[in-house]
Structure prediction request, 109 residues.
Amino acid sequence: MTIATDAPAPMTALSLDAADAAGATQPAGGTECVTWRIPTAGLWVAETPSAYLGMVDHSRDGFVATSSTGRDLGVFATLADAQLAVYRTWSTPDAAPRAGWTFRGTAAH
Prediction:
């Protein structure tokens, strides 16, 4: 998924399908749309109409994902992988990465 605007960018059906294929699902209580905002270059913030979900920050090491509680979800090779980690903490909290600073996610290409 590529997001290159400052306007709100909701997760599309395609990106939600990709998340579902990776094992993530909608939360049991509802079907809120996840929106990724770009408040400044290199920072993506995820939210729904009712909740802050987390963020992704681009660093020289990759894309650093952080949950809504400030928990480090890892450093990922791609923006899409980092965004998926944040999405999973919302959609399936028990399946979210729990490794901390040493976790390094990689794309399965």
In short: Residues 79-91 form the longest helix (13 residues). Helices lie at 13-21, 79-91. The chain has two helices and seven strands.
